[in-house]
TrEMBL record:
Molecular function terms, GO-annotated: ribose-5-phosphate isomerase activity
Classification via InterPro entries: NagB/RpiA_transferase-like (IPR037171), Ribose5P_isomerase_typA_subgr (IPR020672), Ribose5P_isomerase_type_A (IPR004788)
Name of the protein in question: Ribose-5-phosphate isomerase A
Keywords tagged on the record: Isomerase
Residues that bind substrate: 25-28, 80-83, 93-96, 120
Source organism of the structure: Pedobacter alpinus
Pfam families, per database record: Rib_5-P_isom_A
Function: Catalyzes the reversible conversion of ribose-5-phosphate to ribulose 5-phosphate.
Reaction catalysed by this enzyme: aldehydo-D-ribose 5-phosphate = D-ribulose 5-phosphate
Amino acid sequence: MNPKQLVGEKATTYIKDGMIVGLGTGSTAYFAIMKIGELVKNGLSIKGVPTSKATEELAISLNIPLLAIEDVVKIDVTIDGADEFDANKNLTKGGGAALLREKIIASVTDFYVIIADAAKGSQFLGSFAVPVEVTAFGKEITIAQLKALGCIPKLRYKEGELLLTDNQNYIVDCKFEKIENPAQLSAQMNALPGVVENGLFAGMANVIISEDGKGSTITID
Ligand SMILES: O=C(CO)[C@H](O)[C@H](O)COP(=O)(O)O
């Protein structure tokens, strides 16, 4: 089985009848959502909370009942992907530009399940550039301020155009070297006025489900 499908389906074992479930974004979360669609079709009663417009469309196509974000107070389980994870389950997310909605949803989640292939894991974060969502207004100033924190910043484009997030903001990918203290760096970035949110998820994941390259899952908790 495709490793993304393997970890995606395994993650759905944390879902129980009656739960409110955060639905992640990306090619790994896709397989978890497909499985949830199958479980719902077979009688599982849950309500989903999508982390992006793309995921919302997928969930609707699978007839997964959804909650409007304004009706969400607490989420039982969220299943989402990651671009990188370290030895302390800190994450870099936002490769799919959904980091703001993903972090808001993670922040009210009781049990946050991350699914990611083993190649995304290392002792320290820093291989993957940290995506940072910034306002359009003053983006050049914000980019200079991010650079002063020690990264090489790069405004993200898609198909030749500046990428606009679901929230009508831009993404700056910030390439740092070894990130030894993700919580501190996250706070420094979020202290900049033009930063809406950053893709470092420090101390949020309860469990990471990965695979061993031989068809078995590895659970890091
Ligand atoms: O953070 C994300 C989207 O904003 C994704 O979870 C992350 O980019 C991983 O995606 P994939 O499973 O496709 O590798």
